[in-house]
Sequence to fold (373 residues):
Amino acid sequence: MEVEHNKIDRISIPHRSRGIGSWVGAVWGWLDARTGLALPLRKFFTYPVPLYVHKNVLYSLGGVSLISLALQLFSGILMTFYYDPGISSAYDSVDYITYTLPAGWLVRGVHVYNASALVILLFLHLLRTYFMGAYKKPREITWMAGVLMLLVVLGFAFTGALLPWDQSGYWATKVGMEIAGSTPLAGTWIKRILQGGSILGQATLTRFYVLHVLLLPLGILSLVILHIHQLRYHGIAPAITEKGKRDSKKFVPFFPHWMTLDAMIGTALLILLIFVSWNWRAPLEFPADPTSADFIPRPQWYFLSLYQMLKYFPGPLEPVAAILLPGALIGGLLALPFIDRSEERRPWRRPLATALAIAVISAIVVLTVLATL
Ligand code: HEM
Fold:
């Protein structure tokens, strides 16, 4: 028996003295022998990336969007432990998270402010891929999955606003429901489905909650997988500048080269979110009061351009601003790779596409500014 013990000591002591690395290696070896994960993971992280992508912040917008999305899902999951989706308890649960729960202000702050950051990042990422013609053949699916993700993110914003059941969320949703109701032919039907009946009440909150914490997350996760798969399958689009073309023949591994800049910007984003959350508590108005007709509804800033446009199309013309123009923009974005089939990617050689984008961006910015005056 004693001999056996000695044997164990002789084997285990030198093993332990090699430090934590050998333990990690041993556990990893054990896992790999059972799952075969090491090879695909190594392939993923050592994927060769052309040099023109490396250290170019424009190519980090997608990766940082992914980090921002992960932060959003993580902070959202934490909040579901305390959030209560009932019309008589939702407000109190959000108030508790914001003002009483230890670090609740931080989790909710990150969730609320990061929602805006994600919209901005996605918009910039869309512009980068648009101006560099990255939507063209064979990246149609990458692009369309991106457009759908942007829509899902706006869906998150719309459904999330109602969850605190405060005045601003309630009345913004009321306006949103009127807009949905003005859809030609199917308006009444869409409004009833979303609202869960003829009034904005418990059924609406339940539906928005299920959409916000279950269906939209499932949707966006599936789209992220499709987007990243397509990206890896086709590789990043060819460079458009002369310097980039010269760098196209040289490659660096995805990890740590490309990932480092993304991780650095992601960390800066997190620090900024903590700073903002610390200094300004995420807003919570008075509890929703369906009888207070004097409350002026104000949508989140990213819906302001739409809100402003509605003012120029009063009465029976409302569906033009509410449904037709945004619908044409989204439909146009989805169909873009099939409409613009030329192989030219340089924005200065695609004057029509470039001018069109500048006109749409200017219109969105001007309408948003006008709405804040
Ligand atoms: C949560 C949403 C999104 C995530 C996480 C995401 C992630 C990424 C990542 C990591 C890349 C590679 C790096 C880069 O090009 O920046 C990429 C590329 C790409 N993304 Fe996105 N993206 C999202 C939304 C969008 C949107 C809204 C669009 C446009 C409508 C879009 C279109 C594209 C295209 C076309 C590429 C290929 C770029 C190329 O080959 O040069 N993505 N995306």
The chain has 15 helices and two strands.
